[in-house]
Structure formats: structure tokens, C-alpha cells
Amino acid sequence: MGSFPKQISVAPMMDYTDRHCRYLLRLIAPDIQLYTEMITAAALVRGDAKRLLRFHQAEKPVVLQLGGSDPALLAAAALMGEEAGYNEINLNVGCPSPRVQEGRFGACLMLEPALVASCVLAMREAVRIPVTVKCRIGVDHQAEYTSLYGFVGQVNEVSGCNTFIVHARKAWLSGLSPKQNRDIPPLQYELVHQLKRDFPALCVMINGGIRSVTDVGAQLPFVDGVMIGRAAVANPYLLASLQLLHFPGKKVLSREGVVSAFLPYIDQMLQSGVKLHSLARHLLGLFQGQPGAAIWRRYLSQHASRPGAGVTVIEDALIGMN
User: Fold this and answer.
1) Whose CA, among 55, 138, 270, 319, lies 20 to 30 Å from 204?
2) 271-304 pLDDT per residue, tens
3) Active site (annotated) includes residue 95
4) Distance between CA 96 and CA 289 in Å, rounded?
5) Helix (H, G, I), strand (E, B), or coil: what is residue 210?
6) Which helix (H) or strand (E) holds 131?
7) 238 contacts 10 by C-beta, under 8 angstroms
8) φ, ψ for residue 219 (rounded to 5)?
9) How many H helices and E strands in the chain?
10) Active-site entry in 21, 95, 119, 203
């Protein structure tokens, strides 16, 4: 087992882990690693990089996840991320969506380990911050462990990358939708555990189907870190329990305290032109499993999208629960 500090993180999730979500999650758990949504290297280099890279310093440490397959473009994008203040760059080699495949990035790159190695090497040569890879155990009809072992070995040997986050499911590039790819291919945690045993000097983290404090605890003896996905959407306060158990010593706010701490940020964002719905949607699951949770969700859903909605909607939702 390597000498890496154990890490718990929230997965990069399209249309969810935006800057508002990350600010909220950081209020809940000071030591959980946070990731951006995937941003394509081309969008950064050729588009509105200032808007795409925008984040609040309070979110840190935060990882910028990039998508792409052009080493020069990825290197340029990684450098932009470093200059913007991100703590780490992660390459997406796990997303199975058809749109992503058309751009020749995401999970289809697992079929091209030499190209991935070239991309990661170019990124590592461009920046001083860590560059990591997030992948699947394999794609389509690949022999799962043989292909995973070969992929990780080649990328590590050529690029020097020493950190791999592995979603413990295959990706099917045709026949399954992105949503189905998150549920239908069976979870094979033992393959990720085997990868850590075979590459003890590498930092290996596991992702996929991990939904509770118990699930996290069951994985940590075998790997260096655990990444949680949709469970953090449904129940963001789960991260507070993980913070208390695995990173004790820092103050953890109550759910009501999280709302109070989030209100000044909401007010600031509203003044800058952000709509309340874009902020309040990340609060919907905060009281999951608590008395009044349904009232909270219903009130926010009904009122946050109304024209001119402000912080009083959040305050009134809190009052309505009691």
C-alpha cells in the first residue's frame, strides 16, 4: 500500500458540480476534494476562458477536469487552469457520451493508451501542479483487467502520472446511454483493488456506486481514495459525516448553519446577475432524511424560479420546516 494520504472527493458531474455547488460543498466539508465539471480543452483555449475557469477562492482545493485528445491543446488548457489558481488538473478518460466520443475524448480514449500518455506528458510538462487521470475499468469488449492494467502501466511509464481515479464499471460506447452507463455495467471493485496491489507505488482511487459512510469505509482499506458521485447530489450533508469521521479536528456546520453561511454568497451572486434557481437547486437535498425535508424541497422548487426571487425564499423555506 502506497504512502498516500487517504482522500475523499466528489466526482466531476456535468450540470451539477458548478462553482455554486462547490462553494456549498466546501461549507459542508473543509477537507473533501472538489472537482469542476468537465471542460473541453478547445473551449478553454478558443472560447470564454475567464467565464469557464471562474471560481471562488473559498472552494479550494479544487481540481480542474479537462476533456480532449490533442496534447498541445490540453497542455495550453492545463496551463490556463494553473494560472487561474486550480490546485490540480484531471484528464477525463471515462465519459461515455456520444457527443464526447465525437470529439475523440472521454472513455473512447481507453482504446488509445499511447495517445493518452502523450496528452498527460504534455500537460505535466506544461504545469507544476499535479496532473491526474480519471478512467473506467475498460470499454466495450475489452478484457477488463488486462486492458486496465496495460492502460495504467503505459500512461504511468510514458507520462510519469502517478494518480488514477477508476470508475469500477466498463463503459459501453454504443448501445447504452450515459445514464445507463452509470448503472447497467456491473461494478467490479475487485479489479480496482487488484490495480492498487499491482501498482503499489501509484495513487489509486475508486469511484462508482459509493453512496454511504459505510460504503466509503469498506473501500478505503484497499485503495488510496474514494470518489462519491450522485450520493452527494441527493444528500450533500453526507459529506459532513465523512468529514467528521475521516478528517476530524475542523468545525462542521449544522445544516441550518450551512444555509446561514451560504446566504451571503447567494446575495452576492444575485447582485452579479445569477438567478436564484441556479443556486437554490444545490440546496434541495441538504435536509435529506430529516423532518421537514419534503417541505423544504417543495418550497424551494416552487419559489426559487419566480421572477425576482431572492434570499428571502431560502429563509422562508427554513422557517416553513419548523
Assistant:
1) 55
2) 999 999 999 999 999 999 999 999 999 999 999 9
3) yes
4) 32
5) coil
6) strand 131-139
7) no
8) -90, -35
9) 16, 9
10) 95
